[in-house]
Design brief:
This protein is mostly helical. It has seven helices and three strands, in the order αααβαααβαβ.
């Protein structure tokens, strides 16, 4: 999946190297903090199906997600692009599942701290967001935190 040049400008070589070495959701959040520190504030985030719902596969969902992010960036919005974090997240899920455990802290250990930072001005929900467990949780969290909701 090809990231936009807008997304790439916020990443350093060290960020990419660290992404290859993650062992926990906390590691991903530390990298995200670095990226966010270099982004203009406030920024927006896209919400929609990745692992559940949507177009029926993670790959198809990620492609749709990526295209939505690029479209919003091209419209002049600063978007926190979570796409680079998805492959390591999927690897973590597989690693934890193989131990008979369930990785439940992607929302609580990665996304929610970003949401609570006060730096997100709006969530942009993809049309099929209701098919996603995670997006429904994000919708509730947006209402709880008073973050603007935009339906695409």
């Amino acid at each position: 999946m090809e990231l936009s040049e807008i997304t790439k400008q916020y990443w350093t070589k060290e960020d990419w190297e660290n992404l290859e070495k993650v062992e926990s959701v906390g590691d991903l959040y530390i990298i995200a903090q670095s990226i966010i520190s270099r982004m203009p504030k406030p920024f927006v985030q896209v919400c929609g199906p990745i692992a559940t719902g949507g177009l029926g596969s993670i790959e198809a969902n990620l492609n749709a997600f990526n295209e939505t992010i690029k479209k919003l960036q091209n419209e002049g919005l600063t978007v926190f692009d979570q796409m680079p974090f998805e492959e390591p997240m999927q690897k973590l899920k597989t690693k934890i599942a193989s131990k008979g455990e369930y990785l439940s802290d992607i929302l609580t250990g990665f996304y929610y701290p970003i949401f609570k930072s006060g730096m997100i001005s709006a969530f942009y929900f993809m049309p099929n967001w209701r098919t996603s467990f995670g997006a429904k949780c994000e919708h509730e969290k947006a209402k709880e935190l008073g973050i603007k909701i935009v339906y695409l």
